[in-house]
Design brief:
- By secondary structure, this protein is mainly β.
- The protein has one helix spanning 2-17; strands at 20-21, 28-33, 37-44, 53-55, 59-65, 69-72, 90-93, 100-106, 112-119, 137-141, 145-153, 166-172, 175-177, 180-182, 188-191, 199-201, 204-212.
- β2 (28-33) and β3 form a beta hairpin.
Length: 213
């Protein structure tokens, strides 16, 4: 009986540390998926550690709330904790064709919260032109995404349309995108390719628009 218990414990222990797909990591909350993109909300409480999980598609992350975190790749030591990310900061990583896995640990006192968008294309990313809209500032781009920032103060952004699907993320304040109200940081709206839309802020608001190319 003791041998059986030890054997079962070893199996369960192996499962506990096994690498899992991103959508099976419980702190990465899948909020939307279609044929071209996924929207995921990673939220790691203070002192918590994710399972080892693998990223397989190009992605952009938007910092919603920062905390000190460290990461560990398989067979390596933990990295040094970094400074908390600044809300609204966007990061781009090209994982398609070169997937990588890691474990992330929140060693800070606050929740670590991102909004993550995956481009599910394996190739053939679209080379559309950037928008010439004075209410938007382009801050990042790569083969899979183009990222704009909008800082509004009780104003309405110009009516505009993107040639590709676009995810609009609220970083701070409150705003309305079309007929969808975004009333909490991390809320988002999906604008289909070619659809005209505008953003109306209630007071000061910061938003990020992500073209999924």
């Amino acid at each position: 009986m003791n041998v059986r218990c030890l054997w079962a414990g070893a199996i369960l222990g192996g499962l506990a540390v096994a690498q899992v797909p991103l959508d099976q990591e419980p702190r990465h909350h899948i909020e939307f998926v279609n044929e071209s993109l996924r929207v995921i909300s990673p939220q790691i409480p203070a002192g918590d550690t994710t399972l080892e999980h693998i990223h397989t598609r190009d992605e952009v992350t938007v910092c919603i709330h920062g905390s000190q975190v460290r990461a560990k790749q398989p067979g390596r030591d933990w990295s040094n904790p970094g400074m908390p990310c600044v809300p609204g900061t966007a990061g781009l990583t090209e994982y398609t064709g070169k997937p990588r896995s890691h474990t992330v640990q929140n060693v800070g006192p606050d929740v670590y919260h991102l909004l993550l968008v995956e481009n599910l294309r394996e190739s053939g990313w679209q080379a559309n032109d950037a928008l010439a809209d004075p209410s938007l500032t382009m801050v990042r781009e790569n083969r899979s995404f183009r990222v704009y920032r909008a800082n509004l103060a009780g104003t309405t952004a110009m009516v505009h349309a993107h040639a590709v699907p676009t995810v609009v993320v609220l970083v701070s304040g409150q705003a309305t995108v079309g007929d969808k109200q975004l009333d909490e940081p991390g809320r988002w709206a999906l604008v289909p390719a070619g659809d005209k839309h505008q953003i109306t802020a209630r007071g000061e608001a910061q938003l990020i628009e992500i073209e999924v190319r």
